[in-house]
Amino acid sequence: MGQDLDRERRWRAEVLSNLVIGDAVAIPAARGGDFLGLYTQAPPGKLAVLLVHGIGVHPDHGVIGILRGRLAEMGYTTLSIQMPVLAADARGEDYLPLLAAAAARIDAGRGWLVAKGHRALALLSHSLGATMAQEYFRSTAGKGFVGWIAVGAPGEAGMAAPGVPVLDVYGEHDLPAVMSGVAARRASVAAVPGGGQRVVRGADHFYTGRESELAAVVRDFLEKLPR
Prior knowledge:
By secondary structure, this protein is an alpha/beta fold.
């Protein structure tokens, strides 16, 4: 099952026709072409946040779309990027062959922000996006980010990127795949100074109706990161 570029193009058209917050930008891809980014520039002085969505959606979808707007309102520059997608019926494990391509997009988004003059960057991922972020940290040893917020990360995979504080966030009513790894992730993030774990009470995997509480948790962590 290969990367569904036609679906990605359809997502781009849908996002552009409904975009309200920020500007659509084309991020050059490592192997030619480009992919969609949604960029909202805030006044200097705070971190820039690169946002990575979950399985099969787009950079303005659901909780990631809401967070990119809320964080911009809080004074953070945000760049939400289109991650590789498969067909709509693909499962999480079907995405494993795309992890290297996903990591390359994260690195391209990081480079784009640096070229815009941003020096202190944080990474925020949701759901399968956390698995993609783990691949980025594994392949780059944490290059380019001062912190990582993993929201709704599945499984028990280690969350500690070398030298980078990690905040593991999950909902009180999150998916079984997320809840099963809570203890293992708590131990992992504690291995790096500044890391931690937070639960958002009343929240499901998509933080429906709890987006404000999630944004406040993220802000509290970002404020403690080095500039």
